[in-house]
Amino acid sequence: MHWSLIVPLKPLGLAKSRLAAVAAGGLRPHLALAFAQDTVAAALACAAVRDVAVVTDDPRASAELAALGARIVPDRPGAGLNAALAHGALAVRAARPGAAVAALNADLPALRPGELGRVLAVCAQFPRAFLADAAGIGTTLLSAAPGVELRPAFGGASRRGHSASGAVEIALDDVDSVRRDVDTGEDLREALRLGVGPRTALLRAAGAPVVDG
Hints:
Number of domains: 1
Strand content: 15-25%
Shape: globular
CATH architecture: Alpha-Beta Complex
Number of strands: 7
Radius of gyration: 16 Å
Order of helices and strands: EHEHEHEHEEHEHHH
CATH topology: Spore Coat Polysaccharide Biosynthesis Protein SpsA, Chain A
Mean pLDDT: 93
Distance between the termini: 43 Å
CATH superfamily: Spore Coat Polysaccharide Biosynthesis Protein SpsA, Chain A
């Protein structure tokens, strides 16, 4: 099975607000873009991924991610994360009604194509499935097989919400890069420890700060 991934991205000026304490000097929007670029590039390099649709209204992010090969879907609902993901799934299936779709967080800068492929291979066994984040509270990926509605419930304790909706939780070891989203300075340290993609690494090398401790 080959997947169409849907990646939601806020306007860069609003993204990653919890990183403000560790990304001073206007670096936070640059980090948000770098995370998204590394996420999308790794996803497109995964053999199980057919294409990536990024749902965003940010003009800079649209241009940069389109240059990587992503399809840009304007966030016409403008009604938050889950509405954007549902809209993205509809846009993908308007062109290919039989598409298998998966929502993927935009803040996975350490994402490895092989690990993503392992997760998607297990997802293919179920009508809907999800992967919990590293904290065990949220979700980094939610899948829907062909003909199945995505029904995203991201935000807050989405692990519980997706489980309650009937999606099957994927239990896999050694897929840390798919679980490691970045919301805080500690998350960023952990992503750096795993090994981030080239755009995030370049910002780090250029002096993007990470809180010590």
